[in-house]
Known about the structure:
Strand content: 35-45%
CATH class of the largest domain: Mainly Beta
Helix content: 10-25%
Distance between the termini: 91 Å
Oligomer: single chain
CATH topology of the largest domain: Thrombin, subunit H
Radius of gyration: 27 Å
Amino acid sequence: MNPFRILCLPSILLITLVFGGCETIQSSSSPSSSEHGFQQLLDAVVRIDVREVTYRGGSKQNISGVGSGVIISEAGHILTNAHVVSTFAEEIRITLSNLERVSAELVGWDHWTDLALLKLDLEELDERGLSFTNAEFGDSDEVYPGLTVFAVGTPNGLTRTVSRGIISNTNRFFEGADGVHGYETGYFNTWLQTDAAINPGNSGGPLVDENGKIIGINTRAYLGSNNLGFAVPSKTAQFVLAGLLENEEIIRSYVGIVLGPMQDLETFYNIQANQGVLVESVDPGSSAATNGIQPGDILIAMDGQTLDGRFPEQLPPIQNTIANYPVGSEITLEISRQDKRITQTVTTEKLESRVGEEWAFEKWGLSVREISRTYARENKLESDEGMLVLGAKLAFPSDRAGIRAGDIITKINRNPVGSLDDLKAQHEEFNAQSEPLFVEVSRNFRTSLFILKP
Length: 454
């Protein structure tokens, strides 16, 4: 008789070593509460197929993408990444756990945290007799390095896949403008790092604990690395979720200060260790600039609360504190400058992205983006009027005139360029019998003149 006896029961695998006889083994096949929670989570994970538009090369183009998401409410709300579904989305299709495909719409998005909120078409679900389940949030503040976690999603367009790993770090920091259609991300939160595999298509899926509770939303991984994956903590996701449900956007405040870590600069600046945060730069025209804040200043306290920004991962909470002030608030800043303490009061304004609204003018073969206040300040432009050229289509009027990507159109027929709606009206009237347009362009801080002929 084989001394190894393997019994495969539902949800349980038992291995028994038997010597000289047969042993009776009894076990319950009823699922545990954790197994039930994990199955509920799996049923709530969806595949997201998106058709978006992009305005590059002088024309409007369609692109397709696929990602993951998780249903988080009985009303059919789905949480995913902003780089999976953005304001450029024209069609969103959701594949449920039963492999049925239904429509959804974008409720709102927040590129700063790389999160987006969708909503299933409940009327379509009712008409087709379809149902769904929703997952539940866990507490990301309770996770710790070494905790077993699972990344769930639809990698590379495959059906639901679970990968197992651990939390490698609970406070990872990075920021940038790559990966979310050129929009900024990562300024107001840190990330959970995991070695659970997060592959293309996993973006937007949940990172969960052993009970199937969401502790993060999978966002990105380092290509070529050995399972370096990152997720937005559930605490951040719940904050964004509440804001998007209420206002369809997250309104944040801004004073014009770009912060940097102190690290080993305390001795140079002659201040106490673990105190203060470096002002790396100040945006021209911002409240900080007009009130005399300078690059190289050390921000010691804000409204009487001392600050510690020695390391990069300590910056997001400070930046988030400023962002959470109501727009129009006054903030008292205590500054250290050349061993002197200075107090200045700044006023918050609404935070805006450097990326403005985009459009393509097909007759001209021209795609443009509105100049935002932030872009104008960063690039030291005199004003935020004008349109940034994204591309000129080969052999079309804009290309023949000599207009190129990176140019800023400031005037047409000597009139300042207004809103996109103004240009749309002018473009609509443009035809083979139209008079040529006299276009003024700023290129490398110099004015160039072009004639746009039909």
